[in-house]
């Protein structure tokens, strides 16, 4: 399955009522891009006029704090979308950078084509709504984690929900994601190792 067909299949999987022929307008506007590790899909202050679907690879969304230190906000893996969605909707510049942690292949769809598709095929708007709900749900879980969970609980939750990423991201990026220094994450992992008797590399 090529990258464009993978993207089309992801749309139909999320919203089975959409027919493949209804997506021809989308397909004509899709652009496949290849990115190398450490390349940026979007940089700080970019306007997000495109939505990028990750066909293969891994991307890190991050920002810089007042001390110009990088802070990891979230990760985007295969079959997920790269975008600062609020800025995609509003047209404002983004505060986030999106860096490839691996060689990555993405499928790009311009905002204009998305809205044209909504008008031409109303069922595709349902896909947009479902995708928005999914992104909002992820953001809410992220915020709730910092409000109601300890760093250890956030780490355990990450290992449970994103077990497939544990061998693909650095401890530094993971520590930043859960909001602690790398040394603190090392202590958390060692403590959990002692509690359950497993090895943490």
Could you describe the 3D structure shown?
The longest helix is centred in the last third of the chain and has 27 residues. The chain is built from 8 helices and 8 strands; from the N terminus they run ααββββββαββααααα. The chain folds into 2 domains: 140 residues, Sandwich (Jelly Rolls), CATH 2.60.120; 48 residues. The strands form 2 sheets. It has a 4-stranded antiparallel β-sheet. It has a 4-stranded antiparallel β-sheet with strand order 2-7-4-5. α4 crosses α5 and α7 crosses α8.
Q: Biggest sheet: strands side by side, in what order? A: 1-8-3-6
Give the assembly state of these chains.
Answer: single chain
CATH architecture term of the largest domain: Sandwich
As a percent range, the share of helical residues equals: 40-55%
Shape: elongated
The class by helix and strand makeup works out as alpha+beta
CATH top level of the largest domain?
Answer: Mainly Beta
pLDDT < 50 stretches: none
- The SSE order reads HHEEEEEEHEEHHHHH
The CATH topology annotation of the largest domain reads as: Jelly Rolls
Strand content: 15-25%
Give the rounded overall mean pLDDT.
87
Number of strands: 8
Distance linking N and C termini: 35 Å
Domain Cyclic nucleotide-binding: 34-116
Pfam families: cNMP_binding (PF00027)
Protein name: Crp/Fnr family transcriptional regulator
InterPro entries: cNMP-bd_dom, cNMP-bd_dom_sf, RmlC-like_jellyroll
């Amino acid at each position: 399955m090529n990258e464009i067909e993978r993207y089309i299949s992801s749309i139909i999987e999320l919203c089975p009522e959409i027919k493949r022929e209804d997506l021809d307008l989308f397909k004509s506007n899709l652009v496949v891009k290849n990115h190398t590790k450490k390349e940026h899909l979007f940089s700080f202050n970019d306007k997000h006029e495109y939505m990028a679907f990750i066909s293969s690879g891994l991307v890190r969304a991050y920002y810089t704090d007042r001390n110009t230190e990088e802070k990891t906000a979230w990760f985007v893996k295969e079959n997920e979308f790269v975008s600062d969605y609020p800025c995609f909707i509003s047209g404002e510049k983004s505060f986030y950078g999106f860096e490839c942690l691996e060689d990555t292949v993405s499928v790009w769809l311009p905002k204009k084509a998305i809205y044209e598709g909504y008008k031409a095929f109303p069922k595709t708007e349902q896909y947009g709504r479902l995708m928005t709900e999914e992104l909002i749900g992820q953001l809410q879980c992220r915020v709730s984690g910092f409000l109601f969970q300890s760093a250890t609980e956030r780490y355990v939750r990450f290992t449970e929900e994103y077990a497939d990423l544990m061998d693909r991201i650095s401890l530094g990026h993971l520590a930043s994601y859960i909001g602690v220094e790398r040394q603190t994450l090392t202590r958390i992992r060692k403590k959990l190792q002692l509690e359950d008797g497993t090895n943490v590399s």
